Amino acid sequence: MKYSEYKPRPDLLKDRIILVTGAGDGIGRAAALSYALHGATVVLHGRTLNKLEVIYDEIESLGAPQPAILPLQLSSASPRDYELLVDTLDKQFGRLDGILHNAGILGERTELENYPADIWDDVMAVNLRAPFVLTQELLPLLKKSESASVVFASSGVGRETRERWGAYSVSKIAIEAVSELFAKENTHPNLRFNCINPGATRTAMRAKAFPDEDPKTLATPEMIMPAYLYLMGDDSLALNGQSIDDQD
Ligand code: NDP
Q1: Minimum CA distance residue for ligand 1 atom 6
Q2: Is the predicted pLDDT of residue 248 greater than 90, yes or no?
Q3: What is the largest CA-CA distance in the chain?
Q4: Phi-psi region for residue 207, left (φ > 0), alpha (ψ -120 to 50) or beta?
Q5: Probe target for ligand 1 pocket from 19, 42, 47, 223, with the most ligand atoms within 8 Å of CB
Q6: Averaged over 171-175, what is the pLDDT?
Q7: Neighbours of 93 (CB within 10 A)
Q8: Is 107 touching ligand 1 by the criterion CB < 6 Å?
Q9: Rounded to an integer, what distance in angstroms lies between the CA atom of residue 98 and that of residue 228?
Q10: Is residue 170 within 8 Å of 108, Cβ to Cβ?
Q11: Catalytic residue set
Q12: How many alpha carbons fall within 13 Å on the CB side of residue 162?
């Protein structure tokens, strides 16, 4: 199926509680808006509070369900931070119907020979450790859902290594493995795990990775939303442990 042709029902995510990480900008921002406009109560996660407040106001002004804001710096989050996050979601909603693990950083575009180890650690913390720990911590709330979907953001360089993509490529290959393992080990009937490779998309991260590219030649985050809706909603119930390419 061509995901760009997927036509979600307007109420696809009605009454769902969905956490979107990195919701303040780029693809995460578009996904948060799109999920809210399809009926979800979106929990807006990010590290920059004012960006989350802007998207919160936008969602409210569109008449979509009132979102929630959950700021957390993923590169330095402690066990206590995760505990508080789970507690907050548990008290406010008592369950979780989906997570879009979208937050990510690029790191350096350089050979491993010269790759700075501190940047390696940062990329691994945000792109790999945080989605693993968050999923693990939130499993009890996901298991209370009638139908929960966990989606991890991958990349073309998450399928096979590519020169000078360093920690980013390694983190994305590893997150595909994490998603697959959660899927294989899961025994809960109402819970599934998949990856999405958004493909080249007009965001700050893409501009940093390809500074000489004309952004106008790229899909906007809004244009790639059908696949994000598809994976989060029940039309993809049969998918578990898969990795899809948004723009193919
Ligand atoms: P952006 O850089 O535009 O947005 C990334 C988001 O992640 C921002 O909201 C950012 O917050 C948040 N974030 C980054 N670091 C942290 C952190 N330490 N703690 C909390 N939040 C953090 O990226 P894209 O929208 O382009 O990318 C989204 C996902 O899609 C990423 O996982 C990326 O790897 C993947 N992807 C993107 C492609 C593309 O072409 N754009 C292609 C392939 C994959 P803040 O705004 O506050 O910095």
Answers
A1: 22
A2: no
A3: 51
A4: alpha
A5: 47
A6: 98
A7: 16
A8: no
A9: 12
A10: no
A11: 168
A12: 10
Q: How far apart are CA 166 and CA 216, in angstroms?
A: 27
For residue 27 the two structure tokens come to 């693809």
Measured CA to CA, the distance from residue 67 to residue 32 in angstroms comes to 9
Nearest to 77 by CA among 101, 115, 46: 46
State mean pLDDT over 78-83. Answer: 97
Q: Residues 194-236: pLDDT tens digits?
A: 999 999 999 999 999 999 999 999 999 999 999 999 999 999 9
> pTM of the entire structure?
0.98
| Region for residue 235 given its phi and psi (left: phi exceeds 0; alpha: psi -120 to 50; beta: otherwise) | alpha
In the block, residue with structure tokens 């994976």: 231
DSSP labels, 158-221:
GTS--TT-HHHHHHHHHHHHHHHHHHHH---TTEEEEEEE--SBSSHHHHHH-TTS-GGGSBPG
Closest ligand 1 atom to 125 CA: 18
CA–CA distance, 176 with 153 (Å, rounded to integer) = 9
